Amino acid sequence: MKKIALLMLCFGFLSAHAQLRNNDVYEETEMNHSIVRDIIRIPDIGGYQTLKCDFHTHTVFSDGKVWPDVRVNEAWRGGLDAIAITDHIEYRPHKDIVKGDLNESFKIARKRGDEIGFIVIQGTEITRSKPLGHLNGLFISDANPMDVEDPLEAIDIAIKQGGFVMWNHPGWPDDKSTLYPVHEQLIKEKKIHGIEVFNYMEYYPVAFDWCKETNLAFMGNTDIHELISEDYGSHKLSRPLTLVFATEYSEKGIKEALFAGRSAAYFNGQLAGKAEHLTALFKASLVWKVKHADMGAYEVSNMSDITYRFTCNNKLYILPAGKAVGLVLPKEGKITILNCYTGMNEHLEIDLPL
After folding, report:
1. Is residue 228 within 8 Å of residue 78, measured between CB atoms?
2. Angle at 88 between CA 85 and CA 94, to 5 degrees
């Protein structure tokens, strides 16, 4: 039924933008890119759907530059499956012009999401200076009660609403990624559930270890304020993403997966996550054909949009996205995937034969 509804929705898109061509009006409908959507090829793994998400976005209702439904439209066109609207609680420079409470931007975005069958998650950003820093509450029901003086109280309110709390950009603004005692305590009390290891155009390699050691979700998000196209261009897979390995395509499925730590972070060709998830992604991306078994010669087709780079016996191998290559590998040993991180100084290793 959902597929039928989606098909009808697509026809609705087309009919809404088509116009009769006659002697008075001739419209170049093929120039309309608002109904064109990228397809991001990242495989499903282990019985889970791999959903492409961005859990950190801003609109004019805080310090962003765009209307909330624009965030939804550009994410849909970019091939994403879900976004969260996470406007600041404490920092709203346009509030005298843009009216509405702390939930208004989400309501506008959700309305658009419902119209096109796109998942929009309610969130908010608790914005304080270090040592606490910034944290997003995701899957909340009402941001207004979180407008309190004590940020730890705001975190508690988010959790009481069933929220997932993400620690944002730990290396911002002083270029020092520090796990302060307040974070250690919040993690111990299970009040932080994920950490942004990629934010905007920054990496925080030490945060790879924090996620690994504390079993928190690996997160990668844009923290976007401008148009996506202004900061990342129009190329597919140019923005950071959180890959969520969900049992179903729904907000409920995403929430369950994040609390279970089934996620990986992607940006600029790099992946960071748990070894089990990255191994499954790597193997699911590739189709192997044996050419000469005695020589260890293969033709390998990379069916994903992620180019993989790996080494074996001090030789570098590249598996370009969407292409097939011929290569020769030893029958035993290990390969090290250079663009897959399981820790700050740890790359994913996989035993041969694959």
Report:
1. yes
2. 100
- Strands 164-167 and 194-199, bridge-based pairing: parallel
Q: Where are the domains of the chain?
A: 41-273, 285-352
Q: What is the pLDDT of residues 170-195, one digit of tens each?
A: 999 999 999 999 999 999 999 999 99
Count of CB atoms situated within 10 Å of the CB of 266: 25
Q: Model pTM? A: 0.91
Sign of CA dihedral 178, 182, 188, 194: negative
Q: What is the CATH number of domain 41-273?
A: 3.20.20.140
Q: At what angle do helices 104-116 and 2-17 cross, to 10 degrees?
A: 100
Asked if residue 272 lies in contact with residue 341, where contact means CB atoms within 8 angstroms, the answer is: yes
- How many CA atoms, within 13 angstroms, populate the side-chain half-sphere of residue 291? 14
- Token readout for 227 is 């148009």
Q: 195: which 2 tokens?
A: 């950490």
CATH class of 285-352: mainly beta
